[in-house]
Write a structure and sequence with these properties.
binds pyridoxal-5'-phosphate; single chain; 9 helices; 8-stranded parallel β-sheet; 223 residues; 17% strand
């Protein structure tokens, strides 16, 4: 086995009844490992790198829902748009406008999440309050007609201090509540937060989508 099937069952069990969705994060892991989880019933997979995602999408079953969870460069949007199910990490208006433009030329709407900066780490990506405000204004003015805004995504600080993590997830959860109120014309129902180390805390704070990698596939070798 290339996967931790017991952990998979345990997490699915924890999620049942919550309505939350598990995205299995398969970055750097081989197609064979993905197939083991697929055969166990998993359909949502998350990847961070465009080329790796395109290669896997070509090889693997077509009913897999591919989530792009990495930092997306504007010049690579085109490559994933034809098949991607949900883009989690939209962290600038320029990127959003590029996704909108390319989606228009494909005559489709693309589902996205806005990534919000909640951690105390400089290395993490995400929108700050002002950038989010500007984007919300664009949605209100209906300038992004080929974007299907589904919700928000965030990553907590990598720490063992649960108080810090609790606070960050609570913050993101309150931004989620206010954005739903501000944009009632959108079907905003997705709050993507929680990874292997902190998903239980995330669920406590209203996460509807957890992104789990190492707990399912084992530790990754750094790329
Ligand atoms: C890699 C990654 C994950 C999964 O992390 P694990 O700690 O291995 O569960 C989740 N979200 C994002 C954005 C990632 O890059």
């Amino acid at each position: 086995m290339l996967i931790n099937i017991d952990t998979y069952r345990k997490i699915q069990n924890e999620l049942s009844g919550t309505g939350a969705v598990l995205v299995a994060v398969s970055k750097t892991k081989p197609a064979e490992a993905i197939m083991e989880l697929y055969d166990a019933g998993q359909k949502d997979f998350g990847e961070n790198y465009v080329q790796e995602l395109c290669d896997k999408q070509e090889q693997l079953p077509k009913d897999i829902r591919w989530h792009f969870i990495g930092h997306l460069q504007r010049n690579k949007v085109k490559q994933i748009l034809p098949f991607v199910h949900l883009i989690h990490g939209v962290d600038s208006l320029r990127l959003l406008e590029e996704i909108n433009k390319q989606s228009a030329s494909l005559n489709k709407k693309t589902q996205i999440l806005l990534q919000i900066y909640i951690a105390k780490e400089e290395s993490k990506y995400g929108l700050d309050e002002n950038e989010l405000k500007e984007i919300v204004t664009h949605f209100k003015e209906e300038k992004l007609s080929h974007i299907d805004l589904k919700g928000l995504m965030g990553m907590a600080t990598l720490t063992d201090d649960t108080i810090v993590i609790e606070r960050e997830f609570a913050d993101l959860s309150s931004v989620f509540t206010s954005i739903k109120k501000e944009l009632p014309q959108y079907n905003i129902d997705t709050l993507s937060m929680g990874m292997s180390g902190d998903y239980k805390t995330a669920l406590k704070h209203g996460s509807t989508m957890i992104r789990i990698g190492s707990a399912l596939f084992g530790e990754r070798i750094k790329k």
